[in-house]
Amino acid sequence: MLQVFLDYLLVLIAFMGSSISAYIDLKTTEIPDEIPLAMAITGLLIRFGYSLFTGEWYFLLIPSLVGAGFFLFGMLMYWTGQWGGGDAKLLGAIGIMIGILPGIIEEKMIPFYFNYLLNVFFVGAIYIVFYAFVISMKNKKVVKGFYKSLHESKTELYVISVLSLLIFFATTYFYWSMFSSFNIINIFLSLFFIGFYILWKFLKSVETIGFMKKINVKDLREGDMIGEDIKKLNISKKIIRGLTKEEVMKIKKLRKTVWIREGVRFGPVFPIAILVTLFFGNLLILLMQIV
Question: For the whole model, what pTM was predicted?
Answer without folding.
Answer: 0.75
